[in-house]
């Protein structure tokens, strides 16, 4: 079992450029989360999916961030255009069901640097 | 406002000493509480959750609703416990993490 897979692991871009992150959750996991983790902080939830439906995207900056989870499996998170303040680690996690007590399994993260 | 506070960014103890990592929360309702851990060069992973009332790797955590705390404790720290620890809260439609505490266990 590979666990949650994320790519790329590292990305360096110049400001105003677009960037996309990809996540493949654990097989059979219906719930998928995207988090942003700034340096010295804990993960901050951006969006949560139940299958292909975004059930919580209140923290997603919708002017520049977008996400999709077609067919309820893989997901992509996009930033367009990127700003300096977007430099962070972007984490994807999945869980088997959308219950609050469920264990979340995290991917290795994508470290984004915006120059 | 819903919040998770870990007052100590850094905590250092000697091997064999007791350790307590503090976590306080603010939530209007009945949250689910967790401790997640990240060892060096590894992924963030669940350590334990209050609903299970279990001890994992010698760690325990008790939910104190009166003090709104969920402190993580271990009576005898080991060097392999050195890691970053995050307290997390799952609400009805919300998931929040504290800023984390870096625990270092010295030999």
Give the topology string of chain B: H per helix, E per strand: EEEEEEEEEEE
Strand content of the residues of chain A, in percent?
Answer: over 45%
Distance between the termini of chain A: 36 Å
Judged by helices, strands and strand pairing, the structural class of chain A is mainly beta
Helical fraction of chain A equals under 10%
Strand count, sense and barrel status of the largest sheet of chain B are: 6 strands, mixed
Query: What general outline of chain A do the C-alpha atoms trace?
Result: globular
- CATH superfamily placement of chain A: Immunoglobulins
Question: Can you walk me through this structure?
Answer:
Chain A is an all-beta fold. Chain A has one domain: Sandwich (Immunoglobulin-like). Chain A has no helices and 11 strands. Chain A has strands at 5-7, 10-13, 19-24, 31-37, 44-50, 53-56, 65-68, 75-79, 88-95, 105-106, 110-114. In chain A, the strands form 2 sheets. In chain A, strands 2, 4, 5, 6, 9, 10 and 11 form a 7-stranded mixed β-sheet that branches. Chain A has a 4-stranded antiparallel β-sheet with strand order 1-3-8-7, with no helix packed on it. In chain A, a hairpin with a 2-residue loop joins strand 5 (44-50) and strand 6 (53-56). The model of chain A has no long low-confidence stretch (mean pLDDT 93). The mean pLDDT of chain B is 93. The interface between A and B is medium-sized, with 23 and 23 residues.
